[in-house]
Design brief:
binds zinc ion; Zinc Finger, Delta Prime, domain 3; single chain; Rossmann fold; about 350 residues; 2 domains; alpha/beta; elongated
Length: about 350
């Protein structure tokens, strides 16, 4: 696993510590979603298992590294919630303890990766606590968390914490392009996943970027009266409904910002508000726009909390008509304004 460019300085600190005093038994990697915590943990794991490691990482060709690459290394254990579950349970921790009670077979130590640490239930956390209090001889525990506040303080205090910083926007953009992503797609994916390049990459690989792009174009066509209501609602009906509402909520927020004079380039749906003069040329009725915003916000919250039992097609059509209603409030105001102008 190669090191991500924005993790270099953290990596070099870690290597220095290893040379100086050795690493502690448990390291807790903390950082937001999508910045590559797991990639970093795996890099550390392979390096500690490697028989001829160097300061950049594992050698890549020793017996340990070959087993690692084949996915059959006997001295590493990765613990994460089972498919379909959101929790790490006590059985998983018992399995770890059993694993650590053996001696390493190939490498000089055994490595356990636990991710994410915050989804452990209380029983599991207490069992892990015992392991952390009396770590078996040659073992390294690498723990990952996005929400340090949700990790039991007793667990936290028994690990050394390492904060992984997110990349700058430019670093993230460059990295995505180096992964073979088109520049334009990278920009859009990062707008929706700021400072989270791995998540942005997933957006690009799962077509979500193309979906949001097409969604945006259709909203533009709707705003310019170039698409029929039923055509657009049929297409949006094929998308994830929570996505559609989240995006519409965001587009309404953007519209409000645009009306307050914020540069369209800074908006989430920058292309829409730069391209569509129908949206940006006129001042709209703010009360109507705010009402639409509240509606989208409430619906979005409802969907996120899992209570979204609504008729999708009807909801989409009704919101689109409201969108156009806000637009025509501006057109009407404009006509009136022209009418009042002295000849
Ligand atoms: Zn090696």
């Amino acid at each position: 696993m190669s090191l991500l460019p924005w993790h270099h300085s953290t990596w070099h600190d870690l290597v220095r510590r290893q040379h100086h005093n050795g690493l502690p038994h448990a390291l807790l990697f903390n950082g937001r979603q999508g910045i590559g915590k797991h990639a970093f943990a795996l890099h550390v794991a392979q390096w500690r298992l490697c028989i001829q490691p160097h300061d950049d990482g594992a050698c890549g060709h020793c017996h340990s590294c070959l087993l690692w690459q084949a996915g059959t290394h006997p001295d590493v254990l990765i613990c994460q919630p089972e498919e379909g579950s959101r929790q790490i349970r006590i059985d998983a921790i018992r399995h770890i303890n059993q694993f650590l009670s053996q001696t390493p077979q190939i490498s000089a130590c055994q490595v356990v990766v636990i991710r994410p640490l915050e989804v452990m239930n209380l029983n599991a956390a207490n069992a892990l606590l015992k392991t952390l209090e009396e770590p078996p001889g040659e073992s390294l525990l690498l723990l990952e968390t996005e929400r340090i506040g949700s990790v039991l303080p007793t667990l936290r205090s028994r690990c050394q914490r390492l904060v992984l910083a997110p990349p700058s926007h430019d670093d993230a953009q460059q990295w995505l392009v180096a992964q073979g992503i088109e520049g334009e797609h990278a920009t859009i994916a990062l707008r929706f996943n700021p400072q989270a390049p791995l998540q942005a990459l997933q957006w690009c690989q799962t077509e979500r970027v193309k979906q949001v792009q097409q969604w945006q174009q259709q909203l533009q066509q709707w705003s310019e009266r170039n698409i029929a209501l039923q055509a657009i609602s049929t297409d949006w009906g094929k998308l994830d409904f929570t996505d559609v509402i989240a995006w519409l909520h965001q587009a309404v927020n953007d519209w409000l910002k645009q009306q307050m004079g914020i540069d369209p380039k800074a908006l989430m749906f920058a292309e829409l508000f730069q391209a569509s003069a129908m949206l940006t040329d006129a001042t709209v009725d703010k009360t109507k726009l705010l009402t639409l915003q509240k509606q989208c916000q409430a619906l979005h919250a409802q969907l996120l909390s899992g209570h979204g039992n609504v008729n999708k097609a009807l909801t989409i059509e009704s919101l689109l008509l409201d969108w156009r209603h806000v637009q025509s409030s501006a057109l009407a105001a404009k006509r009136q304004h022209h009418h009042e102008e002295p000849a």
